[in-house]
Amino acid sequence: MRRAYKFLLRPTSRQTVALVACLEEHRQLYNAALEHRRTAYRMAGAKIRYGDQSAELKHIRGDDPGGQGRWSFSSQQATLRRLDKAFAAFFRRRKAGQTPGYPRFKGRGWFDTVEWPKDGDGCRWDSQPGHPTATFVRLQGIGHVRVHRHRPVRGRVKTIAVKREGRRWYVILSCEDVPAESLPATGAVAGIDLGVASLVTTSDGDHLANPRHLAASADRLAAAQRDLARKKRGSRRRRRAAARVAALHAKIRRQRLDGAHKAALRLVRDYDVIAHEALRITNMTRSAKGTAEQPGRGVAAKAGLNRSILDAGWGVFLRILAHKAESAGRELIAVNPAGTSRTCPRCGHCAAGNRVTQAEFRCQGCGHQAHADVNAAINFLRAGLALRDAAQAA
Question: Which of 42, 115, 146, 186 sees the fewest Cβ atoms within 10 Å?
């Protein structure tokens, strides 16, 4: 199986300058390649492919030895492939009848990653294995950069990427042939319901708290954003204020990831089979209908609900849960949530009136009472087991 590892980099001041230059040169290469494609099609109707632009790299590097020529050839090819993938996705969505956005030029704040597609080609993980205390990654044109490796790397390192997040730099390793870490069977199964009041509610009646990291940092974030709004555009003070806002958002993101990892690990350790609702979060967090003149009803309430859903991080949690379940040898089943919140698990009666409040379920048919989220989790478990039995019978 494949796995990604993300480690904090500890570059020196000189290496930081080189990393910034590397990112900027790759951004300029991306934008130049995009302009090349646009101009060729507009002026002559010609379609430029990745192979055409990759073949020109040798001449570009030769004409600019102090700029583009400093960096790894393979990393520049990866940047051109990134543009090619953007065009392929654009035409694929357009062919499917969707309305995709045309690939855009990347501003300074919208290009933050450089990738080396092969360990040993312009980069080297653990470049100083004899060092007694530290781990280093070697990057062409930058040197041996110290890595804060907080856990061991398993498998074979395939690709290496460097990413900038605010003022921090990270190295991301994509590893193949990572051995699975199967956990012993527990014999337990569970359905889980995702919510805002509780992040996870299990069919056993357990509730995993929703920490609401965004709400906890809302005051500090609002103060930082007000301070940013008062600064003059293009000034040094505005850049510093923007860095403070970015640092707060990055901290919230790391807190959310940490909570999702801990919650997912707890579920994977306790249950062999986990059934969850197949959520369509994009549809659930769409803005309320209306216009500027007639904004409609409940717009403020819908905006608050959307903010709470995104703060809970359901999509992040489900992705992490899927990865941990695969590694541990657990089974994860996605269930269509239609009708599960208003169906009685005892008698099967389904009616909108069964859901008395957001937290209370009372069946109008048999009088069964339960916590609404626990009731939904039980229905997810039953539907998931039915799907598994049907798949095994087929």
Answer: 42
- Count Cβ atoms below 10 Å from residue 333 Cβ, excluding itself: 20
Between residues 387 and 279, the one the model is more confident about: 387
Token digits of residue 376: 């939904």
**Greater confidence, 197 or 146?**
146
Alpha carbon distance, N-terminus to C-terminus of the chain: 27
Residue 232 DSSP class = P
**DSSP code per residue over 291-315:** -SSS--SSHHHHHHHHHHHHHHTHH
Pairwise CA distance, residues 157 & 123, whole Å: 11
pLDDT category at 292 given cuts 50, 70, 90 is: low
pLDDT above 80 (res 36): yes
Predicted confidence (pLDDT) at residue 287 exceeds the cutoff of 80? no
The model's pTM is 0.82
Cα 383 from Cα 394, distance rounded (Å): 17
Contact 311, 221 (CB under 8 A): no
Q: What pLDDT, on the 0 to 100 scale, is given for residue 276? A: 93
CA angle 190, 206, 185 (to 5 degrees): 40
Burial environment of residue 101 by CB neighbours within 10 A (0 to 12, 13 to 18, 19 or more): exposed
pLDDT of residue 257: 92
Rounded Cα–Cα distance for residues 36 and 83 (Å): 12
The arithmetic mean of pLDDT across residues 122-126, rounded, is 95
Give the C-alpha separation, 238 to 126, whole Å.
38
Secondary structure (DSSP) of 344-393: -TTT--B-GGGB-SSSEEE-TTT--EEEHHHHHHHHHHHHHHHHHHHHHH
Alpha carbons 10 and 296: distance in angstroms, whole number? 51
**Residue 127: strand, helix, or coil:** coil
- Report the pLDDT averaged over residues 352-374: 86
Domains of the chain: 3-176 (no CATH), 189-213+247-393 (3.30.420)
> Within 13 A of 208's CA, how many CA atoms are on the CB side?
22
Q: Which residues pair with 357 in a beta bridge?
A: none
Q: Whose CA is closest to 30, among 108, 90, 93?
A: 108
